[in-house]
Amino acid sequence: MENNKLSLALLAILLLTNAIVVRANSNENSVIETSCAITLYPQLCHSTISSIVGTSNLLSLKDIFEVSLSVAMDAAKHNNKNIKKLMVSTNNVSKRDKIGLHDCVETTDRTIYELGKAIEVFREYPNKRSLTLYADDLKTFLSSAITNQVTCLDGLSHDKTEKRVLRLIENAHIHVTKLCSNALALVQKLTTDIAITDEKSLVVHDFPYKITSIPSQMDDPKIVLFSNQEEDENRRREELEDGIKWPKWMSIEDQKLLESSSEAAAEAVVAADGSGNYKTVAEAVAAAPSKNSKRYIIKIKAGEYWENVDVPSSKRNIMFWGDGRSNTKIISNRSHGTGWSTFKSATLAAVGDGFLARDITFQNKAGAANGQAVALRVGSDHSAFYRCSMLAYQDTLYVHSNRQFFVNCIVAGTVDFIFGNAAAVFQNSDITPRKPGPSQRNMVTAQSRTDINQNTGIVIQKCRIKATSDLEPVIEEFPSFLGRPWEEYARVVVMQTTISNVIDKEGWSTWNGQRKSPYYAEYDNNGAGADISGRVPWSLVIDEAQAKTFTAGPFIGGADWLSSTGFPYQLSLYK
């Protein structure tokens, strides 16, 4: 009898234990399934998360997101290692393919860097501040990681690529892209589920010091933007009234640095005539400290510097300060037509975070016949440009990734001359289509958002879109459009901007006949080209509330960093 009671007791314990285990497994699977259901690739999400040892400890969406970051990082490192091996082992490939593989090494290195930043930021939560304040950073880093992956494949997908090279890396590359996409979808859900109790202000606080801006002028003598003296004078008056103020957290030392003259504040001086520390800009960048946490100013004296300059990931917080964009010019002529990838054609490639530039021209003189030829490529997070000119023809300005800001600048070009997948805001700048090659059509933008959860896009606010003097007489022969979608979810907003008759009445164009699913929007524009009655039916006219979400405050988190640049800016809509 006693034995029967003991047996029954043991049986009850076993059944209870089994029920607990089953319930635990059920809860674990439920969390994974529920979380993965919101991603774009749920089966991949479920299989990769479930394969991790110790998934019984995954109790929430937050836990799933943390594991998804780790999985993406492991895959990215493995992919990067294989590409480096491939570069060593692959023989008899063209110059173009070798350049494409170099692009892939650089972009996958950067993917690892972006994922590392996301992991570091997420580990701080909730020790320092709410997740809401981390949301912009997490979305930016993951959006940039995806863009890096896509850039590699783009460079190996052109007509002259040996397809065997692309096949060797394509599947692994797409796998990493999907893992990053799933992590982005999870953080999107995670951060929107949290009640926003500390929204960022869209107004500049009352800081004790003020700098006024200086009016922009067209520096290329071959390009004439404004011939109306009164219009020019009004614009100058508006710009002189525009200003910025120092943030309270900025040290007195940093304030004095930005107040002082550029040469007195500079750690390095570049002068072609030998009167500085360096004769080339590249030499000065190479000598700058790596992983620097303080602003490092490189003064670039008047002159034409014919060179290609890279500011790599390791060179952070560098500032180029010229003698005025009419006087200081960095020029090169690499192009797709001469065997370079679009990525590597850039006269200046600014990738190290916190990059600033002012009073300089970046130019690519390859010419219209040589196809894609980039004057400036930017992948630097929290980068800003003031009173700079970017001059070329096709693909002038490559706003590749991360958060970027341009104010009082000039961008001149033809086909897709502002393109890429950054979160980029342009304010008070001159955006000028010029005369293209035969049978070409001008496209101001070609935005390349590939994932619907990416927080990227191009915003043109309070700018002037007007033909250059060489295009003005032949506008009817060479139609110009506000943009065409390079990728599926392209996003461009043009607001509070003066649009001349250079822009076709349809406003927007397709990509080789394919419309895709772009978000093309306009708000409160003026000028002969701003009439929306003839716009394509798939473009949007948004209201004030919607337009505010694309201003520098919320769209690029401008309240947190723009004041530290020393450049003028507007966080919300202009009044």
UniProtKB/TrEMBL annotation:
Gene3D superfamilies: Invertase/pectin methylesterase inhibitor family protein, Single-stranded right-handed beta-helix, Pectin lyase-like. Its EC number is 3.1.1.11. Residues 27-186 form the Pectinesterase inhibitor domain. Residues 1-24 form the signal peptide. Transmembrane segments: none annotated. It is found in: Secreted, Cell wall. Pathway: Glycan metabolism; pectin degradation; 2-dehydro-3-deoxy-D-gluconate from pectin: step 1/5. SMART domains: PMEI (SM00856). Pfam families: Pectinesterase, PMEI. GO terms for biological process: cell wall modification; pectin catabolic process. Its main location: secreted. One of its GO terms (molecular function) is pectinesterase inhibitor activity. It catalyses: [(1->4)-alpha-D-galacturonosyl methyl ester](n) + n H2O = [(1->4)-alpha-D-galacturonosyl](n) + n methanol + n H(+). InterPro entries: Invertase/methylesterase_inhib, Pectin_lyas_fold, Pectin_lyase_fold/virulence, Pectinesterase_Asp_AS, Pectinesterase_cat, Pectinesterase_inhib_dom. Keywords: Aspartyl esterase, Cell wall, Disulfide bond, Glycoprotein, Hydrolase, Secreted, Signal. The active site is at D416. In the N-terminal section; belongs to the PMEI family. This is Pectinesterase.
